[in-house]
Structure formats: C-alpha cells, structure tokens
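Following up on my earlier thread - several people asked me to post the actual chain instead of describing it. Fair enough. Here it is, all 284 residues.
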Amino acid sequence: MPSLPGPLPRADAIRQLLPWLFLAAGRPDDRGLEALATQHALSTLRTLDLSRFAEGSVSGLPPHVRWVGSDKAPCPTIAASAALARLAVRAELGRKRGHDARGPDSAGPTDAVLAMHHPRHAPFVSEALWLVLQYHWGMPAPEAIEIVSDICGCAPIPAQASATALELERFVRGWSRRVTLAWPYGGASVEVVGDLVGGWHCRVPLQYNSWRREWRLQLLGLAPGLHRFKFIVDGRWCADVHAPLEHDFWGNANNVLRVGEGGRGGDAIATLGAALLSFYCKLR
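Reply from S.P.:
Thanks for posting it. Predicted structure:
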C-alpha cells in the first residue's frame, strides 16, 4: 500500500485558473487566504481538498446513498471532479446573488472556489480538472487536455478518456436501477442484510430522515434480478410485512425485490453520469 502524503504542506503560491477558481499546491495560511479574498473582493471563498479524494478518505456519496455494484464507484478522480463541479455551481449562484445585490454595473465575482492538493497529487488533479472541463462543461477533449496541461504542468493520459466514459456509463446504469429502502416503523437503529447489499453477512445501516420520519437508504448499482433481504431493527431480525415477502426452505420470511435492466451507454449517458454525481456528491 502506498504511503499517504499526510497533511497538506504550506502553499507557496495560489494560481487563478478562472475568475471563480483558484488552485494551490498545498494549504495557504490565514494571511494568504485573507490576501486572496481582499484582492479579488470575495465575500465567500469555498475550499476543497482534492487530496482527500486521491487518498480515498472521501467516497463522494452521502451516508444515505450506497453503491452496491460489483465494482467500487465512483472512482476517486470522478468523485473529485463531481465535488469541484458542484462547488462551481454554488459559486455561480453566489455570484449571481452578489450581482443582484450590488446592481447591474457591478463587476467581478463575490464567490470563488480554492482547490487545494498535495504536490504529489498533481497528476490526479489534472485528471479531475479535465473531467470537469469535458463532461461537466462540455469542452472538447483535446481543448480540455491542453488547458489542463498548461495549468497543472502535466497532461491526463488520453487513454483514460474511454475508461472514464465507461465508468460514467456504468454509474448511470447503476443509477437507473436505484432502489430506496424505507423502514417507517420506528427503532433506534435499522440495518439491512441480504442479497440486496452483498450477502447475509453484510450489514448496511439505514439513515434516519427526520423530514419523512422514517429510516431510509438508497442503493445504486444493483444487479438485475430477484434480491432477498431483511431488516435488523435494534438488533432483531425482521421483515416488512407490508412489502413483498417470500418464505425460504426453513420457513423464514424474507422481503424480496426484483430489479430490472439498466439503460444504454454513449457519450450523452456519460455526460449524464457526471451531472448525477455532482448532484449526489458529498462535499464534507
């Protein structure tokens, strides 16, 4: 296993890539952040540590969503690009609010994003930025690669394009077979086990939704076919009697769920996958 780079070192400089996007190979100190905000008249500076994705400490999915496909998804590079694209949307909304508040003659952004990374992760960052430019903003691949090469000093591998597109397509197919489990009957803790989540030895917790007042979990990447599962409520195995049931050879009642086939692939599907991941991605 490769050694982790640990905490980000102090950044020597901050590069402006776009009016709203800045990049630092390290973490700027408070004085550097204050100078950046003052120089560009920023009311909000959102930060994103891309090295956390490279190290695998951020999955990209929130706790109430779980990928249960045979392959891990999304990969760290795609998850980092989705997080960056989502922050870009937040910054754009902030700029629009600031423009409306200051009047039509105002100039310059009020919201911006600072992407930070360990110097060792420069190739990883170049791939994430390339994904943002191509799949989130629709820039042609050659132009996106040229821009990223100039910014990061290293170019993403061209062969990575097809692999990335295939993974985004796979995510969309997994999303099209999404299933939301719900347990509305109370309990201090609720888990699910069974074929649905990888086997009867796998316990996956549901998250309590205070707005709906029930325990919920959304599953992505399910294989087509019939799945059997049970809930574990406060340590007790039980089935939802108001959902489809099936009795096994030993007479145990299990809930059952049939999952259909997924959608097709293609460039448009890959672009949809990038957009969906931006919607799902967990920023903190």
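Residues 76-102 form the longest helix (27 residues). That should answer part of your original question.
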